[in-house]
Amino acid sequence: MNTSAPGEIVGVDSTSLEANAAMKSIVRKDSSDNWLAHLKVLAAQEGIKIASKADAIRFDKQRAKQGKKTASNADWKSPSDPDARITKMQDGSTHLAYKAENAVDLETAVIIAAEIYGTDQTDSGTLPETLQAAIETSLRLMTNCVAAKWWLTRAI
Questions:
Q1: What are the tens digits of pLDDT across the range 85-136?
Q2: 131 CB neighbour count, 10 Å cutoff
């Protein structure tokens, strides 16, 4: 028999949500170059001329095979959605996305916090903020939090 009051035991989970912005639209933070312009600069540094989009695609695939291709949040941004972050989705594809993290009262199944973060933030890093939002919403102190084992990679 469970003797906990509503709001005392909370479950927290997150998922990636694809942003409404295309990877094709990202630009370099340092130069504002788009993908094609950036590839032309990289190719020129190697003495290669990019004359067509097909040449750019071949050059980019070659860079990927050599392990030189990266799309990091430190270097790239979406001009139409600057809060979206580059992330690898569960199917292995790369998209701009957000991380939705929810706290649910396990006694009543009511969502008591729904937070949005960048996908470049770790679950253990956002958990305290989500729990704080849950406390403020429910106006009670939680006694237990249920989360996946890998979330608790550091003390919270």
A1: 999 888 888 899 999 999 998 888 889 999 999 999 988 899 999 999 988 8
A2: 19
- Return the closest-CA partner of residue 135 out of 109, 103, 100: 103
Bridge-based pairing state of the strands 9-18 and 27-28:
unpaired
Task: Please name the helix (run of DSSP H) or strand (run of DSSP E) that holds residue 34, with its range, or none.
Answer: none
Contacts of 144 (CB under 8 A, 6+ apart): 4, 8, 9, 10
Phi–psi pair at 55, nearest 5 degrees: -60, -40
Residues in CB range of 9: below 8 A, 6 or more apart: 105, 106, 107, 142, 143, 144, 145, 146
pTM value > 0.85? no
DSSP string, 42-108: HHHHTT----SHHHHHHHHHHHHHTT-----TTTEE-SS-TT-EEEE-TTS-EEEEEEEEEEEETTT
Amino acid sitting at position 149:
K
